[in-house]
Design brief:
By secondary structure, the chain is an alpha/beta fold. It contains ten helices and eight strands. The chain is globular and about 45 Å long. The two termini are 26 Å apart.
Length: 246
């Protein structure tokens, strides 16, 4: 089954998925990947996302090789630019930044990426990406040169998602940006989830099991945890519990 098919199936069954985000810049030693992979497998984490809004190191390809070698769960690229296309992954979130009005991130970079993707075996998952203001500017909002959706305006997120669904996007990602001060508001998750019939991914600022459980209960089908996993990898075991204690 395709990864999008898996996400659609999970949604239809009311089941929840936990993903970790690996930022290649944060991997200083390739042996770290082996250690993290054990935690990912033992905690029964469902997916691994790889990417970053801004990469400052040059070892992306080596990190991808290490991830492919060590990690057995599906690997999904979450790219900040077409330079993060890599055939070692299983799929790529083909992100259109629909919360913003930067044409490069709505279609421009996609034109550059498309012929590269055609030469890979990656499953391309057309994804509406919405940045939400979760307390402070993030690398994602700064680099994208876009205004995030205000935290307390769930109706903007819901109508943006609906427009994305009508445009044919297959998946939605509500993101506070990496290292956000707080997660996306559960009311926003709820309104987006009841407005569109698409798998809903939520990330940014999720740091504990209670937050994860609240976001799942509000309607997220998958959560993504990056910074908290970097700070305390063992947290994955508690976060994995949030999938089943609704
Ligand atoms: C960022 O949603 C991801 O795009 C993860 O965010 O690093 O805050 O967990 P955190």
């Amino acid at each position: 089954m395709s990864i999008l098919g898996e996400l659609q199936y999970l949604k239809s069954e009311g089941r929840k998925a936990l993903s970790v985000l690996i930022d290649p810049d944060k991997i200083s030693n390739l042996e770290d990947v082996q250690r993290l992979s054990s935690l990912i497998h033992e905690s029964r984490t469902d997916y691994v996302l790889v990417g970053g809004s801004l990469l400052t190191t040059d070892h992306f390809n080596r990190v991808m090789e290490a991830i492919r070698k060590n990690i057995k769960v599906p690997i999904i690229l979450f790219p900040g630019s077409p330079s993060q296309i890599n055939n070692q992954a299983d799929a790529i979130l083909f992100l259109s930044l629909i919360s913003g009005r930067n044409p490069e991130l709505l279609i421009g970079q996609h034109v550059i990426a498309a012929p590269q993707l055609k030469r890979t075996n990656l499953e391309v998952i057309s994804t509406g990406y919405m940045l939400v203001d979760c307390g402070k500017p993030t690398t994602a909002s700064y680099i994208s040169q876009t205004f995030p959706i205000p935290w307390n305006k769930p109706e903007i997120a819901a109508t943006t998602a609906l427009a994305g669904e009508y445009l044919g996007l297959k998946c939605m990602y509500l993101d506070g940006g990496s290292g956000a001060e707080r997660p996306v508001d559960t009311e926003m998750v709820h309104q987006v989830s009841r407005t569109v019939n698409l798998p809903l991914i939520v990330g940014g600022g999720i740091r504990n099991e209670d937050q994860a459980r609240a976001i799942f209960a509000a309607g997220a089908d998958m959560i993504v945890v990056g910074t908290a996993f970097e700070d305390e990898p063992e947290l994955l075991f508690a976060l994995a519990q949030s999938r089943v204690q609704l």
